Amino acid sequence: MKELSKEVPVQLDKARYPQYGRVLEDFNAGDVYSHPRGITIDRAFAVEFATTFMEANPLYLNSEFAKAHGFKDLLVSPMMLLNLTISMGVQNDSEKAMANLGYYDVEFPAAVYPGDTLHGLTKVIEKRERGDKPGIVTIRTVAMNQKNEVVCRYNRKIMVAPGGKKSEPTTIMGEKFPDDGRGAMNCAPTNKGPYPKNLTGTRTYFENFTVGEIIVHPNGRTITDEHVGWTYRLLNTHPLHYDKVYTKNAKLSGTGETVVYGGLVFAWLCGLASRDTSENILWDLGYTEGYHTQPAYTGDTVYAMSRVLAKEADGIIQFQLIGVKNLGGKEALQKYGTDLFLKENGKKDMGKEKIPEKIFEIERQLLVKKRGNS
Q: Do 164 and 214 fall into the same domain?
């Protein structure tokens, strides 16, 4: 190959500057976006996520344990699945967004195993314009496996600024969006034995939980610069999470530092809670609505607590999951009491101040193993 750079003149007028993501004008209710790339999840990646994010349930770590419970292999952690589903859509949905305003109706209708290949679609549900202010866009995103089975679905609200004109699209539009199927689960976990049953603790069965109790999870997790690598490993392309020059110039971060991708914070909080709440679950049924009430940065230490909201005879338990940073759960409970469990966005109407250390709030439903079926 002959070197040509000295012979070909530089033409500055031919420089182009690719842009990704969408401004407010690009969103229209009913549009469907096909997400680029997709990903095949290998076993090492699945186990590394489960251990990095502190999952305690052997279903995500131990293939023989999972098979003994009716699965064909160890399961990919639902938090890994949700993070990939969110991140695959960032280039289409939120790479130009100013904020992620919340998660809604998260569900995991089918099992995902090592070796499965995922791709994603997003449908625009609603766009709310607010004059010169950033608008609010509601989207519904799904991840599908190689058989085109939906394995994750959720809604999200994002704050998106107007750009003055439409952008050039960077991905394909118009693919058929799968039927909603809300609430459906095409998996029936069972206890088949005979694999050893002593791989979980003694206080996380259905019978161990009492409605109203608050579980203050003992350990915290200090977030290092590892979050930058994990952001891109999970396919999230928003520069807010890994480009300090962008973050400083965009003035989206009060510190000028890169913001920890919220899906990672969500996963760490679930992991911190797992030894006390989800270690013995058979299925993660999903999440109602939740919010990142404060950002997290490199060096922050996050803590979690759970409150039992309801129990059903079929083994379903509903929890409220709360996250705080740089203040231990016990100290946070002593300092703020019941205010920790009130939604932050409703506190102004109550005449209450928001809690600066509180970073996350959501409700979740888990199918918890009963002691006699262990």
A: no
To the nearest 10 degrees (0 to 180), the angle between helices 262-274 and 226-233 is 100
Of 200, 221, 247, 246, residue with least CA distance to 371: 200
Q: Please report, in tens digits, the pLDDT of each residue of the chain (374 residues total).
A: 999 999 999 999 999 999 999 999 999 999 999 999 999 999 999 999 999 999 999 999 999 999 999 999 999 999 999 999 999 999 999 999 988 899 999 999 999 999 999 999 999 999 999 988 999 999 999 999 999 999 999 999 999 999 999 999 899 999 999 987 777 676 667 767 777 878 999 999 999 999 999 999 999 999 999 999 999 999 999 999 999 999 888 776 567 889 999 999 999 999 999 999 999 999 999 999 999 999 999 999 999 999 999 999 999 999 999 999 999 999 999 999 999 999 999 998 999 999 999 999 999 999 999 987 65
Domain boundary among 179, 213, 241: 179
- Asked if the structure places residue 245 within a domain, the reply is no
Domain span at 305 = 200-223+260-374
Amino acid at position 76, single letter = V
Number of domains in the chain: 2
